[in-house]
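Our preliminary data section would be incomplete without showing what the modeling component actually yields. Below, a chain of 153 amino acids is followed by its predicted structure, encoded as tokens that our downstream tools consume directly.
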Amino acid sequence: MKMEMTDLQKAYYLGEKENFVLGGSSAVIYFSFVIHDFCVDTFQRALNIVVNKHQLLHSFLNEENLFEEGFIKEVPVDYLEKGGLEIEEWIHQEMDLHKIPLFRVLVENQEVKKATIHFIISGLILDGWSVDLLIQQIQMAYLGESLPEIEIA
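Predicted structure:
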């Protein structure tokens, strides 16, 4: 299924282009949350469930700049290793809007069975209201609960 961008999404997309005043930067949303009793496999399963439930979370911009659904068998997750990539570097990595997914996830293990989950998501696919919904649904899926039906993509 293909879907056109809204006017706001088009504005965000154009704002990434260098040829506009104040352009050249991406509209992204960053957030993080902590999971206690963290299990890598349980988190990966929960993330896969939530991402595949919501169309824009598994979409990309095709060559016509229309959103097109893709398929993600397993959502890619980065893990912060001691002496490896710093969170600040990770946040500022460029995101290719023509490749799925239009977000990145980083797991930072802080201590045994406790992790901070960092998300950076393109403003093209998520707004502020949706952040809370995304976190709630990841938590529900992590706990093995059924996700409610939502009428908004």
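Residues 59 and 69 are 4 Å apart (CA to CA). Strands lie at 2-3, 28-36, 59-61, 67-69, 78-79, 103-111, 114-122. Preliminary results of this kind motivate Aim 1 of the renewal.
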